């Protein structure tokens, strides 16, 4: 029997609405007792972790990240992604299937699951490809992929553009107790775009996509969710119009959920102003009015989760003219800190911010983690809410250094991360 006891911590459990001073007893990789007010005594032989007043919360659950394997190990590997995730307080990560080859075969899903387990610090939950090769045409074997461990189905950063295919996918997913994650962009409008249509894109001479392309895709798929009774989840929403459609769909009682990512509530399109390729993302950064709408949707419950949207790129991918550079930003190590920036700005209560990173994604995925409660897995993050640091590309954990937040000063830093009761970062 192995005991670890946390003392002198601020317990944050969004699932239970808990924000109190106290401690936590972990036994054999599981939370044994939540100690509001602190422990009455120290069990014999227990490892004591004095939090120094820092915040102790469930480990973060990242709904959306590319991990490099298979096929792009030069950008990131599962092992390097695990290092970055641990430094960012992430203990569970959902891996996108649009790799090379795509995760459209049960054996490939099992490979990713095993590689995640081998890290000892990160549970990787793979998405199954919704269509063969994530090409949007032929459906995959949802049943076999589900049995192999697929948590849901998506074509990653490729929108399922054909309405009939999306209708079938939603019906199939419903039959297997799962859901479809959609990249919300009409392909015919967004193909080849490097920025959001508007004055800035025109002035910079960049190929652009109208912001309406996101809302158009969302509107169609909400209609299909209504038709099929299926569950559609929209990834990285970034526009006011799309968020309003989701808000209305939820009020109607439809099975519609969504997430967003830190760039869309912390940055706006001006970040690309000097052709800064680290800020070239998919979807592209939006005007300030859309950023403000994303913040409002985080606060009012429209958004169900915040995902890192980690898209590793190497130097050769980004050292190109802006229009030719690869879209994508590294986001594992900065996920918590950039989210906490909205707490420091007064936009989000702390528990709400943490719910979007823990209890929210856990509920979507049906996980036991994401909460501080007796019997739950001891996946934990200890962080200093006030500790300042600066994001510096080249000094981030993991292989990927293409952070859109390069040079950004942040408050809130991870001190330690535990996976199943074992410390995997800090100390």
Structural description of this entry:
- The protein is α/β, with parallel strands linked by helices and 427 residues long.
- The protein folds into two domains: 3-56 and 377-386 and 409-425, Urease, subunit C, domain 1; 59-365, Metal-dependent hydrolases (TIM Barrel, Alpha-Beta Barrel), CATH 3.20.20.140.
- It has helices at residues 78-87, 106-119, 142-148, 163-175, 187-190, 199-204, 212-228, 240-252, 263-266, 288-300, 315-318, 335-344, 350-357, 359-365, and strands spanning 3-13, 18-27, 30-36, 47-50, 55-58, 60-65, 90-95, 123-126, 128-129, 153-154, 180-182, 195-196, 208-209, 232-234, 256-260, 305-306, 380-390, 409-419, 422-425.
- The strands form four sheets. Strands 1, 2, 3, 4, 5, 17, 18 and 19 form an eight-stranded mixed beta sheet that branches.
- Helix 8 links the parallel strand 14 (232-234) and strand 15 (256-260).
- The radius of gyration is 21 Å and the shape is globular.
- 57% of the residues are buried.
- The mean pLDDT is 97.
């Amino acid at each position: 029997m192995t005991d670890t006891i946390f003392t002198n911590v601020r317990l944050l459990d969004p699932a239970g609405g808990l924000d109190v001073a106290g401690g936590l007893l972990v036994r054999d990789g599981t939370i044994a007792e939540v100690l509001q007010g602190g422990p009455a005594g120290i069990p014999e032989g227990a490892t004591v972790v004095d939090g120094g007043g820092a915040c102790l919360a469930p480990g973060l659950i990242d709904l959306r990240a590319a991990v490099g394997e298979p096929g792009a190990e030069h950008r990131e590997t599962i092992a390097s992604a695990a290092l970055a995730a641990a430094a960012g307080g992430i203990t569970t990560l959902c891996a996108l299937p649009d790799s090379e080859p795509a995760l459209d075969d049960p054996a490939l899903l099992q490979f990713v699951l095993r590689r995640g387990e081998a890290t000892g610090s990160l549970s990787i939950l793979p998405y199954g490809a919704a269509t063969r090769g994530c090409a949007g045409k032929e459906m995959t074997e949802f049943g076999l992929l589900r049995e192999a461990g697929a948590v849901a189905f998506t074509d990653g950063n490729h929108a399922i553009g054909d309405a009939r295919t999306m209708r079938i996918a939603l019906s199939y997913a419903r039959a297997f107790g799962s859901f479809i994650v959609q990249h919300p962009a009409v392909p015919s409008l967004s193909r080849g775009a490097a920025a959001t249509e508007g004055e800035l894109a025109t002035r910079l001479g960049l190929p652009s996509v109208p912001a309406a392309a996101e809302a158009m895709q969302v509107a169609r798929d909400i209609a299909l969710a209504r038709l099929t009774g299926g569950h559609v989840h929209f990834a990285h929403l970034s526009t006011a119009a799309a968020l309003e459609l989701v808000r209305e769909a939820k009020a109607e009682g439809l099975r519609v959920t969504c997430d967003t990512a830190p760039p869309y509530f912390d940055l706006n399109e001006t970040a690309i102003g000097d052709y800064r390729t680290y800020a070239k993302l998919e979807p592209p950064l939006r005007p300030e009015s859309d950023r403000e709408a994303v913040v409002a949707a985080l606060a009012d419950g429209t958004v169900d989760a915040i995902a890192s949207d980690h898209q590793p790129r190497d130097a050769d991918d980004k050292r190109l003219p802006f229009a030719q550079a690869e879209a994508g930003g590294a986001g594992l190590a900065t996920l918590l800190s950039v989210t906490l920036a909205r707490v420091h700005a007064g936009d989000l209560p702390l528990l709400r911010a943490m719910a979007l990173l823990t209890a929210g994604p856990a509920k979507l995925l049906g996980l036991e983690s994401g909460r501080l409660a007796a019997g739950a897995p001891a996946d934990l993050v200890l962080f200093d809410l006030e500790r300042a640091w600066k994001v510096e590309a080249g000094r981030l954990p993991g292989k990927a250094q293409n952070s859109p937040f390069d040079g950004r000063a942040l408050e809130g830093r991870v001190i330690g991360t535990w996976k199943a009761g074992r410390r995997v970062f800090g100390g």
